[in-house]
Specification:
The protein is of the alpha/beta class and about 240 residues long. The protein is about 25% helix and about 30% strand. Helix 6 crosses helix 7. The mean pLDDT is about 95. Bound molecules: S-adenosylmethionine.
Amino acid sequence: MTFPSGFGPGTYGASFADVYDRWYGGITDATATARFTASRCTTTSVLELGVGTGRLVGALRTEGLTVIGIDSSAPMLDGLRHGLGIQADIAHLPLRPAGRLGGALCAFNTLFNLPTVELQTRVLAEAAEAVDGPIIVEAMTGRGLAEAEPQSVGISRLNAESLVLAATLVDQEAQTVTGQHVEITEAGIKLRPWHLRWSTPEQLDTMAEAAGLRLSERYSDWDESAFLSDSDTHISVYRRR
Ligand SMILES: C[S@@+](CC[C@H](N)C(=O)[O-])C[C@H]1O[C@@H](n2cnc3c(N)ncnc32)[C@H](O)[C@@H]1O
């Protein structure tokens, strides 16, 4: 299975570019992300895979890193105010050969926007070719979805002007979540579709192996808390074998 019908690499950006900074600006700790990333990069430049509107770029720059950002979505890149943004698919990086990029960062489940194991593996392999340093991945473990209902609808956001309902379909076998954020305002209804294929940490390690990488560090958050069997998220650092 690849993308469900009607979904593609540009879906996420088309759905969320206009609200991304407002809705997700503080979704994870940008300062801790940047501090961790800068401490692992082997030079002062970093490749951010799926840079989006640049939510993390300001903090990365504060840590002394120059950011080269890749994203498939022009509307997301339109929001990028600092750093270099290149519109491209992270499974087909336009950067060769390995130069002075000191590492790659793929944050906030971005890897799971790629809908198959093959494409996620390819992202890791391409990043390994493009940078001269570690590949740092932030992702959910999938454990939080183990008990998820196959279908659900809930309130995502509510204020005096709008209601956002989040409808999701979870397929445990395919390891996919397909969702619609349905925004209702006086002006009408806006659909914001999205699709993720999650991989467990163990599956990611296998993909990394296939991409010529090995796991060298794993934590449950950017502050380097221990990764435990019930952690919902992980920060994994892969290096060339
Ligand atoms: C969850 S957002 C993360 C943005 C940013 N890294 C952050 O942490 O806020 C995922 C980003 O990945 C981009 N994306 C999804 N699939 C992609 C692909 N195949 N190639 C490049 N970018 C992709 C989306 O357009 C979106 O900007």
